[in-house]
């Protein structure tokens, strides 16, 4: 078994520091996106902290989100917001741009985005407007 096979994605990404940088690069893009901005509060600090906790856990780091908030139940937590496929695509686009901004290696970025696609599309609860 190679070292990379023993490491979690969290460790391969660079751990807490990289997750923090990713979240900090991601949310300014969300705030500027016309489809996403209306879904978020003006004060993004609490949202950013929850995202940091969740992504830490999601990518194999310590279970910070569960320790603070219980089971993630992310689909249920997002049901109050009209999430369309178009918004899921926009969210993924902002995440990709954030990964590029922090200079995440392309192969790792592509792998992580593929993992995030499952969650992004799982949250869809509203049809796209025609």
UniProtKB/TrEMBL annotation:
SUPFAM superfamilies: Globin-like
Keyword line: Heme, Iron, Metal-binding, Transport
Iron recorded as keyword: yes
Signal peptide: none
Keyword Nucleus: no
Top-level division of the source organism's lineage: Bacteria
Listed name of the protein: Globin
Family membership: Belongs to the truncated hemoglobin family. Group II subfamily.
InterPro entries: GlbO/GLB3-like, Globin-like_sf, Globin/Proto, Globin_bac-like_CS, Hemoglobin_trunc
């Amino acid at each position: 078994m190679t070292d990379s096979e023993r490491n979690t994605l969290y460790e391969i990404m660079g751990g807490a520091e990289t997750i923090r940088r990713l979240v900090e690069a991601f949310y300014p893009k969300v705030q500027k996106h016309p489809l996403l901005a209306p879904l978020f509060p003006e004060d993004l600090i609490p949202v950013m902290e929850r995202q940091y906790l969740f992504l830490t856990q999601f990518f194999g780091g310590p279970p910070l989100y569960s320790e603070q908030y219980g089971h993630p139940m992310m689909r249920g937590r997002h049901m109050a917001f009209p999430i369309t496929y178009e918004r899921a695509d926009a969210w993924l686009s902002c995440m990709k741009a954030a990964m590029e901004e922090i200079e995440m290696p392309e192969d790792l970025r592509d792998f992580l985005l593929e993992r995030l696609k499952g969650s992004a599309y799982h949250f869809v609860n509203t049809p796209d407007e025609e």
